[in-house]
Inverse folding.
């Protein structure tokens, strides 16, 4: 009789334990997992909304509104004159729309204050004030020194739709501009180092800081 009672008690204990694991314990784990999943989804949604709101803060370049070709430059030289005036690398980039290898340009490492001028004609184009570290391997700026100093044109080469940046004074190719830059413009002017020359000097009042580099 005692043996039967012990068996009954053992069975009842096993049933209770099994119910607890399947019902209470697993049910709680499932609830916690669902809660974590919902929280993760909400966080992802919040980050996406924040990113979209950030993008809407800027007047991004609309490719459809970019001119199909460059405007006529003020400075006009023959190709032979350009070849005499520029080094082989400068000519390839400025006159033939070439691109230097990433992280090779000398101006990428410049930390001093000053102005970046066109390597073809000396026109002031960018300031150390607007230079920032993009991590791309090319000097990057979020704005030009003045409106109209650089022009934009569609670039459909290599099966891509890009926006070319060029010097309006001489028509020299500088690089491209993208809609992934920092405030206050949201733009990233990705410029070939060999297309520019750096002129050291004090920046204007209101401009600040040591230029960022990708070094």
């Amino acid at each position: 009789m005692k043996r039967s009672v012990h068996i009954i008690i053992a069975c009842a204990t096993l049933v209770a334990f099994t119910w607890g694991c399947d019902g209470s314990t697993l049910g709680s784990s499932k609830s916690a997992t669902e809660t974590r999943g919902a929280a993760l989804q909400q966080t992802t949604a919040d980050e996406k909304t924040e990113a979209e709101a950030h993008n809407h803060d800027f007047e991004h370049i609309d490719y459809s509104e970019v001119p199909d070709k460059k405007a006529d430059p003020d400075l006009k030289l023959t190709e032979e004159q350009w070849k005499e005036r520029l080094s082989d690398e400068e000519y390839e980039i400025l006159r033939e729309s070439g691109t230097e290898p990433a992280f090779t340009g000398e101006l990428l490492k410049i930390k001093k204050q000053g102005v970046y001028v066109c390597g073809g004609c000396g026109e002031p184009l960018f300031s150390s004030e607007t230079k920032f570290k993009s991590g791309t391997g090319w000097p990057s700026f979020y704005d030009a020194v003045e409106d109209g100093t650089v022009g934009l044109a569609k670039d459909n080469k290599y099966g891509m739709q890009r926006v070319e940046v060029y010097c309006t004074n001489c028509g020299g190719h500088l690089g491209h501009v993208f809609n992934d830059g920092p405030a206050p413009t949201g733009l990233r002017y990705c410029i070939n180092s060999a297309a520019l020359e750096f002129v050291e000097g004090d920046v204007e009042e209101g401009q600040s800081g040591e230029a960022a580099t990708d070094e």
